[in-house]
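DM from R.C. (forwarded with permission)

"hey, sorry to bug you on a friday — could you get me a structure for this? deadline for the figure draft is monday and I only need the backbone to look sensible"
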Amino acid sequence: MNSFSNIWNHPKTSVTGLLIALVTIGGVLSQQGVTLGNAGSGTVVTLVCAVATALLGLLARDPVEASSPVASAAKLGAWALIALLLPLPFLGGCSGSTVAQDIVNWTPSLESAVATVDSIAALLAPEDAPVFTAATIGFDAASNLLDTQAKAYLANPSASLLAQLQTQIVVLQQQVNAALLQSAKIVNPASQQHALAAVQAVATIVTALLALVQSVSSKAAVAQMAAASTIKLASVRPYINRNHAAVVVAAHYGEPVEVARMQVAQAEVSEAQAGF
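My reply, with the result:
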């Protein structure tokens, strides 16, 4: 009887628990390939998880009765839990078309970041500008090709086009990693700061795109991608500004920075575990 009375006495907690259970179970089903049928371009499992996660977000946004440290910690804890659960239904159950659309949606931000890289040489010391330009010269072509391939996949989803996306995101990732290492070698402090900041902006978006492509790739495909990734995340980790990355991701997805910060960390862990 106490269990039933607790449900009525604490409805918000009970609903939250139910939603967490739905998201958790849905994530497991998605990872096992259980769909329960199609819903639009996705699956019933993905749809249920999306609705449950959205409702969790609304609950976490509810105003608390007090602004005490305990209340603030509880709210942050709710966001942390949502951030931990989000990759299960979305990164585990996304369709290739959804990922391709997300890549296209990232394109304006990527183009802006690459344009900044193209213009940053003017701010560098004369001896540093040629080195930086040589290290980043391939960004434009690689990012444009990735966008073209994503749009082609949207128009005609196929295994061959997905394979092209897998190859191209690794190409761009490797170019960015190489540019980060080259920028870090710049001796002039001002030049180094400008160079790293510009490349980091591109790196943030490329990391997000890599995580998206990785989420819809088979284990064999991910292993092949990781094998082609010769400049590993561990090599460039010291030059990654995670706070800036969280701000960029939060702005793109319209979510709190706290959630984005945890998602950035999770993506980094996931990619490192996969061998990138």
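R.C.: lifesaver. The CA atoms of residues 81 and 117 lie 36 Å apart.
me: no worries. The longest strand covers residues 38-39.
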